[in-house]
Write the C-alpha coordinates for this entry.
Amino acid sequence: MSKRPLILITNDDGITAPGLRSLIDVMNEIGEVVVVAPDSPQSAMGHAITINSTLHCSKIKLNKGPQKEFSCSGTPADCVKLAVNELLKRKPDICVSGINHGSNSSINVIYSGTMSAALEAGIEGIPAIGFSLLDYRWGANFEPLKPAIKTITENAIKNGIPQNVVLNVNMPQVDSSEELNGIKICRQAKAYWIEKFDKRTNPMGKEYYWLTGEFINKDKGEDTDEWALNKNFISIVPVQYDLTAHHVIQELNTWDFG
Amino acid sequence: MSKRPLILITNDDGITAPGLRSLIDVMNEIGEVVVVAPDSPQSAMGHAITINSTLHCSKIKLNKGPQKEFSCSGTPADCVKLAVNELLKRKPDICVSGINHGSNSSINVIYSGTMSAALEAGIEGIPAIGFSLLDYRWGANFEPLKPAIKTITENAIKNGIPQNVVLNVNMPQVDSSEELNGIKICRQAKAYWIEKFDKRTNPMGKEYYWLTGEFINKDKGEDTDEWALNKNFISIVPVQYDLTAHHVIQELNTWDFG
Protein backbone atom coordinates (compact mmCIF):
# COMPACT_ATOMS: atom_id res chain seq x y z
CA MET A 1 0.00 0.00 0.00
CA SER A 2 1.76 3.12 -1.18
CA LYS A 3 -0.43 5.71 0.52
CA ARG A 4 -1.60 5.57 4.12
CA PRO A 5 -4.61 3.29 4.66
CA LEU A 6 -8.05 4.88 4.94
CA ILE A 7 -9.58 3.80 8.25
CA LEU A 8 -13.28 4.08 9.08
CA ILE A 9 -14.04 4.18 12.81
CA THR A 10 -17.44 3.70 14.37
CA ASN A 11 -18.91 2.37 17.64
CA ASP A 12 -22.15 1.84 19.52
CA ASP A 13 -21.52 3.83 22.69
CA GLY A 14 -21.80 7.08 20.73
CA ILE A 15 -19.36 9.62 19.35
CA THR A 16 -18.44 11.06 22.77
CA ALA A 17 -17.41 7.69 24.28
CA PRO A 18 -13.88 7.48 25.72
CA GLY A 19 -13.44 4.07 24.09
CA LEU A 20 -13.96 5.61 20.65
CA ARG A 21 -11.51 8.40 21.48
CA SER A 22 -8.85 5.83 22.42
CA LEU A 23 -9.41 3.99 19.15
CA ILE A 24 -8.97 7.28 17.25
CA ASP A 25 -5.62 7.82 19.00
CA VAL A 26 -4.35 4.41 17.88
CA MET A 27 -5.66 4.66 14.32
CA ASN A 28 -4.22 8.15 13.78
CA GLU A 29 -0.80 6.45 14.09
CA ILE A 30 -1.67 3.94 11.34
CA GLY A 31 -3.56 5.83 8.67
CA GLU A 32 -6.02 8.47 7.53
CA VAL A 33 -9.00 8.35 9.90
CA VAL A 34 -12.68 9.11 9.32
CA VAL A 35 -15.05 8.69 12.28
CA VAL A 36 -18.76 8.12 11.57
CA ALA A 37 -20.44 7.32 14.87
CA PRO A 38 -23.90 7.48 16.44
CA ASP A 39 -24.86 10.75 18.12
CA SER A 40 -26.20 8.82 21.14
CA PRO A 41 -25.49 5.47 22.84
CA GLN A 42 -26.78 2.45 20.86
CA SER A 43 -25.71 -0.42 23.10
CA ALA A 44 -27.45 -3.77 22.62
CA MET A 45 -28.95 -2.48 19.37
CA GLY A 46 -27.94 -5.69 17.62
CA HIS A 47 -27.98 -5.34 13.87
CA ALA A 48 -30.76 -2.75 13.77
CA ILE A 49 -31.01 -0.47 10.74
CA THR A 50 -33.16 2.59 10.16
CA ILE A 51 -35.66 2.01 7.36
CA ASN A 52 -38.79 3.72 8.61
CA SER A 53 -37.36 7.08 9.57
CA THR A 54 -34.80 9.55 8.31
CA LEU A 55 -31.09 9.77 9.06
CA HIS A 56 -29.21 12.94 9.94
CA CYS A 57 -25.47 13.40 9.84
CA SER A 58 -23.30 16.37 10.88
CA LYS A 59 -19.62 17.04 10.43
CA ILE A 60 -18.20 17.87 13.84
CA LYS A 61 -14.87 17.83 15.64
CA LEU A 62 -14.75 16.77 19.27
CA ASN A 63 -11.01 16.26 19.69
CA LYS A 64 -7.80 17.63 18.29
CA GLY A 65 -6.06 15.48 15.70
CA PRO A 66 -6.02 14.80 11.97
CA GLN A 67 -9.22 12.68 11.95
CA LYS A 68 -12.46 13.74 10.28
CA GLU A 69 -15.57 13.23 12.40
CA PHE A 70 -19.27 12.79 11.57
CA SER A 71 -22.06 12.40 14.12
CA CYS A 72 -25.12 10.46 12.86
CA SER A 73 -28.63 9.88 14.12
CA GLY A 74 -28.74 6.17 13.25
CA THR A 75 -27.54 2.85 14.54
CA PRO A 76 -23.96 1.52 14.22
CA ALA A 77 -24.96 -0.40 11.06
CA ASP A 78 -26.52 2.79 9.64
CA CYS A 79 -23.28 4.67 10.29
CA VAL A 80 -21.27 2.17 8.27
CA LYS A 81 -23.74 2.15 5.38
CA LEU A 82 -23.82 5.95 5.32
CA ALA A 83 -20.05 6.25 5.56
CA VAL A 84 -19.30 3.79 2.78
CA ASN A 85 -22.05 4.83 0.38
CA GLU A 86 -22.29 8.58 0.96
CA LEU A 87 -19.59 10.20 3.10
CA LEU A 88 -16.28 8.57 2.09
CA LYS A 89 -14.64 9.34 -1.21
CA ARG A 90 -13.23 5.82 -1.56
CA LYS A 91 -13.76 2.42 0.01
CA PRO A 92 -11.92 2.29 3.35
CA ASP A 93 -9.04 -0.15 3.71
CA ILE A 94 -10.34 -1.23 7.08
CA CYS A 95 -13.20 -0.51 9.46
CA VAL A 96 -12.66 -0.65 13.22
CA SER A 97 -15.52 -0.47 15.70
CA GLY A 98 -15.28 0.33 19.39
CA ILE A 99 -13.59 0.29 21.75
CA ASN A 100 -16.79 -0.95 23.33
CA HIS A 101 -17.32 -0.27 27.01
CA GLY A 102 -18.13 -3.86 28.00
CA SER A 103 -17.71 -7.43 26.76
CA ASN A 104 -18.84 -8.74 23.40
CA SER A 105 -17.43 -12.21 23.97
CA SER A 106 -19.35 -15.45 23.71
CA ILE A 107 -23.10 -15.13 22.98
CA ASN A 108 -22.92 -11.35 23.58
CA VAL A 109 -21.77 -10.99 19.97
CA ILE A 110 -25.41 -11.55 18.95
CA TYR A 111 -26.64 -8.43 20.80
CA SER A 112 -23.67 -6.25 20.02
CA GLY A 113 -23.97 -2.97 18.18
CA THR A 114 -20.17 -2.80 18.04
CA MET A 115 -19.99 -6.10 16.19
CA SER A 116 -23.00 -5.30 14.01
CA ALA A 117 -21.06 -2.31 12.65
CA ALA A 118 -18.08 -4.57 11.95
CA LEU A 119 -20.34 -7.17 10.31
CA GLU A 120 -21.96 -4.47 8.18
CA ALA A 121 -18.53 -3.40 6.95
CA GLY A 122 -17.64 -7.03 6.28
CA ILE A 123 -20.79 -7.48 4.21
CA GLU A 124 -19.76 -4.37 2.24
CA GLY A 125 -16.47 -6.12 1.48
CA ILE A 126 -14.35 -4.10 3.91
CA PRO A 127 -11.95 -5.84 6.34
CA ALA A 128 -13.39 -5.14 9.77
CA ILE A 129 -12.60 -5.55 13.46
CA GLY A 130 -14.70 -4.92 16.55
CA PHE A 131 -12.80 -4.09 19.76
CA SER A 132 -14.33 -4.44 23.22
CA LEU A 133 -12.97 -4.02 26.73
CA LEU A 134 -14.38 -6.02 29.64
CA ASP A 135 -15.12 -2.87 31.61
CA TYR A 136 -18.52 -1.19 31.41
CA ARG A 137 -17.42 2.00 33.13
CA TRP A 138 -17.22 5.29 31.23
CA GLY A 139 -13.87 5.83 32.99
CA ALA A 140 -12.44 2.45 31.91
CA ASN A 141 -8.68 2.38 31.35
CA PHE A 142 -8.02 1.82 27.63
CA GLU A 143 -4.33 2.84 27.71
CA PRO A 144 -2.79 -0.62 28.41
CA LEU A 145 -4.61 -2.09 25.39
CA LYS A 146 -3.44 0.41 22.80
CA PRO A 147 -0.26 -1.45 21.69
CA ALA A 148 -2.22 -4.68 21.13
CA ILE A 149 -4.95 -2.86 19.20
CA LYS A 150 -2.27 -1.38 16.95
CA THR A 151 -0.61 -4.77 16.40
CA ILE A 152 -3.88 -6.52 15.57
CA THR A 153 -4.97 -3.77 13.15
CA GLU A 154 -1.58 -3.70 11.41
CA ASN A 155 -1.70 -7.49 11.02
CA ALA A 156 -5.19 -7.25 9.52
CA ILE A 157 -4.08 -4.57 7.04
CA LYS A 158 -0.93 -6.48 6.10
CA ASN A 159 -2.34 -10.02 5.89
CA GLY A 160 -5.94 -9.20 4.99
CA ILE A 161 -8.83 -10.71 6.89
CA PRO A 162 -10.19 -13.98 5.41
CA GLN A 163 -13.18 -13.45 3.08
CA ASN A 164 -16.67 -13.23 4.61
CA VAL A 165 -15.18 -13.01 8.11
CA VAL A 166 -14.77 -10.15 10.59
CA LEU A 167 -12.78 -10.19 13.82
CA ASN A 168 -14.32 -9.94 17.28
CA VAL A 169 -11.58 -8.77 19.64
CA ASN A 170 -12.25 -8.76 23.38
CA MET A 171 -9.75 -7.46 25.90
CA PRO A 172 -9.42 -8.12 29.64
CA GLN A 173 -9.43 -5.31 32.15
CA VAL A 174 -5.79 -4.68 33.16
CA ASP A 175 -3.86 -1.87 34.83
CA SER A 176 -0.81 -2.15 32.57
CA SER A 177 0.24 -3.85 29.31
CA GLU A 178 2.55 -6.12 31.32
CA GLU A 179 -0.46 -7.86 32.87
CA LEU A 180 -1.55 -9.10 29.43
CA ASN A 181 -0.51 -12.67 28.60
CA GLY A 182 -0.79 -12.25 24.84
CA ILE A 183 -3.31 -12.58 22.01
CA LYS A 184 -5.22 -15.82 21.27
CA ILE A 185 -7.33 -16.85 18.28
CA CYS A 186 -10.44 -18.41 19.84
CA ARG A 187 -13.87 -19.80 19.19
CA GLN A 188 -17.04 -18.28 20.69
CA ALA A 189 -17.71 -19.95 24.06
CA LYS A 190 -21.06 -21.68 24.43
CA ALA A 191 -22.24 -19.53 27.31
CA TYR A 192 -25.56 -17.84 27.96
CA TRP A 193 -27.48 -15.48 30.21
CA ILE A 194 -30.02 -16.52 32.79
CA GLU A 195 -32.40 -13.59 32.70
CA LYS A 196 -34.09 -12.21 35.72
CA PHE A 197 -36.77 -9.57 35.40
CA ASP A 198 -36.92 -7.08 38.23
CA LYS A 199 -40.66 -6.36 38.45
CA ARG A 200 -41.63 -2.99 39.94
CA THR A 201 -44.68 -0.79 40.25
CA ASN A 202 -44.60 2.79 39.04
CA PRO A 203 -46.11 5.72 41.00
CA MET A 204 -49.32 5.32 38.95
CA GLY A 205 -49.67 1.70 40.06
CA LYS A 206 -48.66 0.17 36.71
CA GLU A 207 -46.20 -2.73 36.64
CA TYR A 208 -42.97 -2.57 34.69
CA TYR A 209 -39.76 -4.59 34.34
CA TRP A 210 -36.02 -4.12 34.28
CA LEU A 211 -34.08 -6.80 32.43
CA THR A 212 -31.20 -8.16 34.51
CA GLY A 213 -29.32 -11.43 34.30
CA GLU A 214 -26.47 -13.67 35.22
CA PHE A 215 -23.86 -14.88 32.73
CA ILE A 216 -23.30 -18.63 32.81
CA ASN A 217 -20.40 -20.36 31.04
CA LYS A 218 -20.48 -24.14 31.17
CA ASP A 219 -18.11 -24.46 28.18
CA LYS A 220 -14.87 -25.85 29.66
CA GLY A 221 -12.93 -25.68 26.36
CA GLU A 222 -9.51 -24.03 26.54
CA ASP A 223 -9.94 -22.67 23.01
CA THR A 224 -12.80 -20.29 23.86
CA ASP A 225 -12.84 -16.52 24.20
CA GLU A 226 -14.07 -16.80 27.79
CA TRP A 227 -11.16 -19.06 28.73
CA ALA A 228 -8.61 -16.70 27.14
CA LEU A 229 -10.09 -13.59 28.77
CA ASN A 230 -10.13 -15.25 32.20
CA LYS A 231 -6.40 -15.93 31.75
CA ASN A 232 -5.72 -12.28 30.81
CA PHE A 233 -5.30 -12.99 27.12
CA ILE A 234 -6.84 -10.83 24.42
CA SER A 235 -9.25 -13.04 22.45
CA ILE A 236 -9.84 -12.83 18.71
CA VAL A 237 -12.83 -14.76 17.38
CA PRO A 238 -13.30 -14.85 13.60
CA VAL A 239 -17.02 -14.23 13.05
CA GLN A 240 -19.01 -15.07 9.92
CA TYR A 241 -22.32 -13.75 8.59
CA ASP A 242 -23.26 -16.89 6.72
CA LEU A 243 -25.42 -18.18 9.56
CA THR A 244 -26.26 -21.46 7.78
CA ALA A 245 -25.77 -24.50 10.00
CA HIS A 246 -24.44 -26.52 7.05
CA HIS A 247 -23.84 -29.57 9.26
CA VAL A 248 -27.57 -30.18 9.89
CA ILE A 249 -28.86 -29.85 6.31
CA GLN A 250 -28.55 -33.60 5.77
CA GLU A 251 -30.58 -34.33 8.93
CA LEU A 252 -33.32 -31.86 7.99
CA ASN A 253 -33.60 -33.48 4.57
CA THR A 254 -34.99 -36.58 6.31
CA TRP A 255 -38.09 -34.65 7.44
CA ASP A 256 -41.35 -35.70 5.79
CA PHE A 257 -43.26 -32.79 4.29
CA GLY A 258 -45.79 -35.07 2.59
CA MET B 1 -46.19 -35.73 24.13
CA SER B 2 -49.29 -36.55 26.14
CA LYS B 3 -50.69 -33.03 26.53
CA ARG B 4 -50.97 -30.45 23.76
CA PRO B 5 -47.71 -28.61 23.06
CA LEU B 6 -47.29 -25.12 24.54
CA ILE B 7 -46.54 -22.73 21.66
CA LEU B 8 -45.06 -19.26 22.13
CA ILE B 9 -45.79 -16.87 19.25
CA THR B 10 -44.06 -13.56 18.67
CA ASN B 11 -43.13 -11.34 15.73
CA ASP B 12 -41.53 -8.04 14.80
CA ASP B 13 -44.35 -6.33 12.91
CA GLY B 14 -46.27 -5.86 16.16
CA ILE B 15 -49.21 -7.55 17.82
CA THR B 16 -51.80 -6.18 15.37
CA ALA B 17 -50.05 -7.52 12.24
CA PRO B 18 -52.12 -9.76 9.95
CA GLY B 19 -49.14 -12.12 9.59
CA LEU B 20 -49.17 -12.74 13.35
CA ARG B 21 -52.91 -13.31 13.27
CA SER B 22 -52.50 -15.96 10.55
CA LEU B 23 -49.81 -17.70 12.59
CA ILE B 24 -52.16 -17.76 15.61
CA ASP B 25 -54.84 -19.45 13.44
CA VAL B 26 -52.46 -22.24 12.44
CA MET B 27 -50.97 -22.74 15.90
CA ASN B 28 -54.38 -22.91 17.60
CA GLU B 29 -54.87 -26.13 15.59
CA ILE B 30 -51.64 -27.61 16.95
CA GLY B 31 -51.42 -26.66 20.61
CA GLU B 32 -51.95 -24.27 23.49
CA VAL B 33 -50.96 -20.80 22.26
CA VAL B 34 -49.50 -17.81 24.13
CA VAL B 35 -48.74 -14.67 22.11
CA VAL B 36 -46.15 -12.22 23.46
CA ALA B 37 -45.55 -9.61 20.80
CA PRO B 38 -44.31 -6.02 20.51
CA ASP B 39 -46.91 -3.29 20.91
CA SER B 40 -45.50 -1.49 17.83
CA PRO B 41 -43.62 -2.48 14.66
CA GLN B 42 -39.97 -3.45 15.25
CA SER B 43 -38.84 -4.29 11.74
CA ALA B 44 -35.10 -4.29 11.04
CA MET B 45 -34.44 -4.17 14.79
CA GLY B 46 -31.90 -6.96 14.46
CA HIS B 47 -31.14 -8.56 17.79
CA ALA B 48 -31.74 -5.44 19.86
CA ILE B 49 -32.60 -5.83 23.54
CA THR B 50 -33.78 -3.26 26.07
CA ILE B 51 -31.26 -2.77 28.83
CA ASN B 52 -31.34 0.96 29.44
CA SER B 53 -35.05 1.48 29.81
CA THR B 54 -38.03 -0.30 31.33
CA LEU B 55 -40.36 -2.84 29.75
CA HIS B 56 -44.13 -2.82 30.01
CA CYS B 57 -46.43 -5.71 29.27
CA SER B 58 -50.25 -5.91 29.19
CA LYS B 59 -52.58 -8.86 28.86
CA ILE B 60 -54.95 -8.10 25.99
CA LYS B 61 -57.16 -9.97 23.55
CA LEU B 62 -57.38 -8.73 19.99
CA ASN B 63 -59.04 -11.72 18.34
CA LYS B 64 -61.40 -14.49 19.28
CA GLY B 65 -59.86 -17.88 19.95
CA PRO B 66 -58.30 -19.91 22.74
CA GLN B 67 -54.92 -18.11 22.65
CA LYS B 68 -53.62 -15.88 25.45
CA GLU B 69 -52.16 -12.56 24.29
CA PHE B 70 -49.65 -10.12 25.80
CA SER B 71 -48.60 -6.81 24.26
CA CYS B 72 -45.08 -5.65 25.25
CA SER B 73 -43.13 -2.44 24.89
CA GLY B 74 -39.84 -4.08 23.91
CA THR B 75 -38.14 -5.64 20.93
CA PRO B 76 -38.85 -9.14 19.60
CA ALA B 77 -35.91 -10.53 21.62
CA ASP B 78 -37.27 -8.78 24.75
CA CYS B 79 -40.67 -10.41 24.17
CA VAL B 80 -39.13 -13.88 24.13
CA LYS B 81 -37.03 -13.24 27.25
CA LEU B 82 -40.02 -11.84 29.10
CA ALA B 83 -42.31 -14.67 27.98
CA VAL B 84 -39.94 -17.45 28.95
CA ASN B 85 -38.69 -15.98 32.21
CA GLU B 86 -41.72 -14.16 33.54
CA LEU B 87 -45.04 -14.76 31.77
CA LEU B 88 -45.17 -18.48 30.94
CA LYS B 89 -45.74 -21.09 33.62
CA ARG B 90 -43.53 -23.65 31.87
CA LYS B 91 -40.95 -23.72 29.08
CA PRO B 92 -42.73 -23.68 25.72
CA ASP B 93 -42.36 -26.74 23.48
CA ILE B 94 -41.75 -24.49 20.49
CA CYS B 95 -41.49 -20.80 19.63
CA VAL B 96 -42.72 -19.53 16.27
CA SER B 97 -42.05 -15.99 15.07
CA GLY B 98 -43.84 -14.16 12.27
CA ILE B 99 -45.37 -14.44 9.82
CA ASN B 100 -43.14 -11.57 8.80
CA HIS B 101 -44.44 -9.18 6.18
CA GLY B 102 -41.39 -9.34 3.90
CA SER B 103 -38.39 -11.54 3.13
CA ASN B 104 -35.81 -12.68 5.67
CA SER B 105 -33.91 -14.79 3.16
CA SER B 106 -30.21 -14.52 2.39
CA ILE B 107 -28.31 -11.74 4.18
CA ASN B 108 -31.62 -10.24 5.42
CA VAL B 109 -31.51 -12.74 8.29
CA ILE B 110 -28.87 -10.48 9.90
CA TYR B 111 -31.26 -7.50 10.17
CA SER B 112 -34.35 -9.49 11.01
CA GLY B 113 -36.34 -8.92 14.18
CA THR B 114 -38.41 -11.99 13.31
CA MET B 115 -35.32 -14.17 13.26
CA SER B 116 -33.78 -12.49 16.31
CA ALA B 117 -36.82 -13.61 18.30
CA ALA B 118 -36.37 -17.15 17.00
CA LEU B 119 -32.63 -17.04 17.79
CA GLU B 120 -33.38 -15.76 21.29
CA ALA B 121 -35.70 -18.71 21.86
CA GLY B 122 -33.04 -21.06 20.50
CA ILE B 123 -30.47 -19.64 22.88
CA GLU B 124 -32.96 -20.27 25.71
CA GLY B 125 -33.06 -23.93 24.63
CA ILE B 126 -36.46 -23.76 22.94
CA PRO B 127 -36.98 -25.19 19.42
CA ALA B 128 -37.76 -22.18 17.27
CA ILE B 129 -38.86 -21.23 13.76
CA GLY B 130 -39.13 -17.85 12.04
CA PHE B 131 -41.69 -17.60 9.22
CA SER B 132 -41.57 -14.86 6.58
CA LEU B 133 -43.60 -14.16 3.46
CA LEU B 134 -42.07 -12.39 0.47
CA ASP B 135 -44.78 -9.74 0.50
CA TYR B 136 -44.31 -6.49 2.40
CA ARG B 137 -47.93 -5.41 2.15
CA TRP B 138 -50.14 -5.30 5.24
CA GLY B 139 -52.82 -6.95 3.08
CA ALA B 140 -50.53 -9.83 2.01
CA ASN B 141 -52.29 -13.16 1.40
CA PHE B 142 -51.15 -15.63 4.07
CA GLU B 143 -53.91 -18.21 3.45
CA PRO B 144 -52.13 -20.37 0.82
CA LEU B 145 -49.14 -20.84 3.17
CA LYS B 146 -51.06 -22.10 6.19
CA PRO B 147 -50.91 -25.85 5.36
CA ALA B 148 -47.11 -25.68 4.87
CA ILE B 149 -46.63 -23.74 8.10
CA LYS B 150 -48.60 -26.41 9.92
CA THR B 151 -46.58 -29.24 8.33
CA ILE B 152 -43.23 -27.62 9.12
CA THR B 153 -44.20 -26.88 12.73
CA GLU B 154 -45.54 -30.40 13.29
CA ASN B 155 -42.31 -31.84 11.87
CA ALA B 156 -40.27 -29.65 14.20
CA ILE B 157 -42.32 -30.75 17.24
CA LYS B 158 -42.17 -34.42 16.25
CA ASN B 159 -38.51 -34.65 15.15
CA GLY B 160 -37.02 -31.90 17.30
CA ILE B 161 -34.83 -29.19 15.79
CA PRO B 162 -31.08 -29.97 15.87
CA GLN B 163 -29.29 -28.46 18.90
CA ASN B 164 -28.08 -24.86 18.69
CA VAL B 165 -30.00 -24.33 15.45
CA VAL B 166 -33.22 -22.46 14.61
CA LEU B 167 -35.13 -22.57 11.34
CA ASN B 168 -35.48 -19.62 8.98
CA VAL B 169 -38.51 -20.31 6.78
CA ASN B 170 -39.22 -18.01 3.83
CA MET B 171 -42.26 -18.37 1.64
CA PRO B 172 -42.95 -17.13 -1.90
CA GLN B 173 -45.93 -14.94 -2.69
CA VAL B 174 -48.61 -17.17 -4.24
CA ASP B 175 -52.35 -16.95 -4.87
CA SER B 176 -53.07 -20.56 -3.95
CA SER B 177 -51.35 -23.55 -2.30
CA GLU B 178 -51.28 -25.30 -5.70
CA GLU B 179 -48.73 -22.75 -6.98
CA LEU B 180 -46.20 -23.95 -4.38
CA ASN B 181 -43.65 -26.47 -5.65
CA GLY B 182 -42.79 -27.85 -2.21
CA ILE B 183 -40.41 -27.25 0.70
CA LYS B 184 -36.62 -27.20 0.32
CA ILE B 185 -33.85 -27.29 2.94
CA CYS B 186 -31.41 -24.60 1.76
CA ARG B 187 -28.31 -22.63 2.61
CA GLN B 188 -28.29 -18.83 2.96
CA ALA B 189 -27.53 -17.31 -0.46
CA LYS B 190 -24.48 -15.07 -0.67
CA ALA B 191 -26.42 -11.99 -1.72
CA TYR B 192 -26.22 -8.40 -0.55
CA TRP B 193 -27.75 -4.94 -0.80
CA ILE B 194 -26.30 -2.06 -2.75
CA GLU B 195 -27.37 0.87 -0.64
CA LYS B 196 -28.46 4.16 -2.06
CA PHE B 197 -29.10 7.10 0.19
CA ASP B 198 -31.83 9.44 -0.97
CA LYS B 199 -30.53 12.81 0.22
CA ARG B 200 -33.15 15.52 0.83
CA THR B 201 -33.41 18.91 2.45
CA ASN B 202 -36.02 19.56 5.14
CA PRO B 203 -38.14 22.76 5.29
CA MET B 204 -35.55 24.24 7.70
CA GLY B 205 -32.74 23.73 5.17
CA LYS B 206 -31.13 20.79 6.97
CA GLU B 207 -30.07 17.75 4.98
CA TYR B 208 -31.33 14.27 5.80
CA TYR B 209 -31.28 10.81 4.25
CA TRP B 210 -33.60 7.92 3.48
CA LEU B 211 -31.91 4.54 3.23
CA THR B 212 -32.89 2.69 0.06
CA GLY B 213 -31.17 -0.09 -1.80
CA GLU B 214 -31.13 -2.76 -4.44
CA PHE B 215 -30.84 -6.46 -3.63
CA ILE B 216 -28.12 -8.24 -5.62
CA ASN B 217 -27.75 -12.02 -5.75
CA LYS B 218 -24.69 -13.26 -7.61
CA ASP B 219 -24.85 -16.69 -5.94
CA LYS B 220 -25.83 -19.11 -8.73
CA GLY B 221 -26.06 -22.17 -6.43
CA GLU B 222 -29.22 -24.22 -6.75
CA ASP B 223 -29.10 -25.06 -3.03
CA THR B 224 -29.77 -21.49 -1.83
CA ASP B 225 -32.89 -19.95 -0.33
CA GLU B 226 -33.02 -17.36 -3.13
CA TRP B 227 -32.98 -20.09 -5.80
CA ALA B 228 -35.75 -22.03 -4.05
CA LEU B 229 -37.96 -18.97 -3.55
CA ASN B 230 -37.56 -17.92 -7.19
CA LYS B 231 -38.83 -21.38 -8.18
CA ASN B 232 -41.87 -21.07 -5.86
CA PHE B 233 -40.47 -23.40 -3.23
CA ILE B 234 -40.67 -22.62 0.49
CA SER B 235 -37.08 -22.40 1.77
CA ILE B 236 -35.90 -23.62 5.18
CA VAL B 237 -32.41 -22.50 6.21
CA PRO B 238 -31.04 -23.92 9.46
CA VAL B 239 -29.44 -20.97 11.26
CA GLN B 240 -26.86 -21.14 14.03
CA TYR B 241 -25.81 -18.63 16.67
CA ASP B 242 -22.28 -19.88 17.05
CA LEU B 243 -20.90 -17.27 14.67
CA THR B 244 -17.32 -18.59 14.85
CA ALA B 245 -15.73 -19.03 11.44
CA HIS B 246 -13.99 -22.22 12.57
CA HIS B 247 -12.45 -22.76 9.12
CA VAL B 248 -10.19 -19.68 9.34
CA ILE B 249 -8.80 -20.20 12.86
CA GLN B 250 -5.77 -22.04 11.45
CA GLU B 251 -5.01 -19.19 9.03
CA LEU B 252 -5.31 -16.54 11.75
CA ASN B 253 -2.92 -18.51 13.93
CA THR B 254 -0.16 -17.66 11.41
CA TRP B 255 -0.41 -13.94 12.25
CA ASP B 256 2.58 -12.47 14.04
CA PHE B 257 1.63 -10.60 17.19
CA GLY B 258 5.26 -10.16 18.27
User: Anything to note?
Assistant: Chain B touches chain A through 78 residues (CB under 8 Å). The helical segments of chain B are 18-28, 76-87, 113-123, 146-159, 225-230, 249-252. The first strand of chain B starts at residue 6 and ends at 10. Residues 9 and 24 of chain B are 7 Å apart (CA to CA).
